[in-house]
From TrEMBL:
It holds the Pfam family Abhydrolase_1. SUPFAM superfamilies: alpha/beta-Hydrolases. Residues 40-264 form the AB hydrolase-1 domain. This is 3-oxoadipate enol-lactonase. It comes from Frigidibacter mobilis.
């Protein structure tokens, strides 16, 4: 498959926006270099139904202190939807291709929800490219009964339309958020996702398993879970924490499924700690 990347300067953003072309599809990414050439890089991988914009608060806080690479997962944001089956083999390949296009050899991989198996899949293929991992509100394999649950969600989105579906989903993702403006911002981001992009990646979530890599991870791993994210905090504590050597779990109070968006200050503190431990 032919792969080409272009970068366009974006002075107002303090970085560059790029487009990675892989065959017939494109992946949008952004590269924001650090002030210090020796500073580490972080790569951010978004969740289902969000885009790289979900990391805006982290970009504002970390800009200059670390190099930042953001991209839109397939079918989300400004990235096109692949034809055919989408799985985490493809999504993890995309992540590594973005690193190549951004000219970044080693990074701390930060994954949110769907971004967790994406990052884990990329680590399994190229462990030397990761100095650390931050895995947020996600799992290493589809939960029991997950295939049927995802089929129901996909059917509901098609029957209701994506905006009503997203409005209801935000109620579950941010169950105790009283900030109407914040909730509205998340709905707008989610509803901008093309239906075909949602369906393609939701299909990938129906049946995936990247758990074989967990015991082989040799870099530092920070696990993060929103305290209000249903069974996720317990699942991460029972499954991921004991399976990953030396992993650490922090639970963010007052946050649901998208803690980087709902409680960004708490997440920024954890990311700063990871950077400090990497020697920044």
């Amino acid at each position: 498959m032919k792969t080409e990347a272009t970068l366009d300067a974006a002075p107002s953003q303090g970085g560059e926006h790029g487009t990675l072309v892989k065959g017939a599809r494109s992946i949008a990414f952004q590269r924001i270099p650090p002030t210090r050439a020796s500073a580490p890089w972080l790569l951010f991988s978004n969740s289902l139904l969000t885009s790289s914009a979900v990391w805006a608060a982290q970009v504002a806080d970390l800009r200059g202190r670390a190099g930042l690479v953001l991209y839109d997962q397939a079918g989300h944001g400004r990235s096109s939807t692949p034809t055919g089956t989408v799985g985490f083999d493809l999504l993890s390949d995309d992540l590594l291709s973005v690193l190549d296009a951004a000219g970044v050899e080693t990074c701390c991989g930060v994954g949110l929800s769907m971004g967790v198996p994406t990052v884990l899949g990329a680590y399994a293929k190229a462990p030397k490219r990761f100095a650390a991992l931050v895995l947020m509100d996600g799992q290493a394999k589809t939960a029991a009964g997950g295939a049927a649950a995802w089929a129901e969600r996909m059917a509901a989105a098609q029957a209701q339309g994506l905006r009503p579906f997203c409005e209801a989903l935000v109620g579950r993702w941010m169950p105790h958020c009283a900030d109407a403006a914040l909730r509205a911002r998340l709905v707008e981001m989610m509803a901008a996702t093309p239906m075909e992009g949602f369906l393609a990646c939701a299909s990938a979530l129906q049946d995936y398993d990247v758990s074989a890599v967990l015991g082989e991870i040799s870099c530092p791993v920070q696990l993060v879970a929103g305290a209000l994210d249903g069974t996720i905090p317990d699942s991460m504590a029972r499954v991921l924490l004991p399976a990953i050597p030396g992993a650490r779990l922090d639970v963010i109070e007052g946050a649901g499924h998208i803690p980087c968006f709902e409680q960004p200050e708490a997440v920024n503190v954890l990311l700063a700690r990871v950077l400090q431990e990497l020697g920044t």
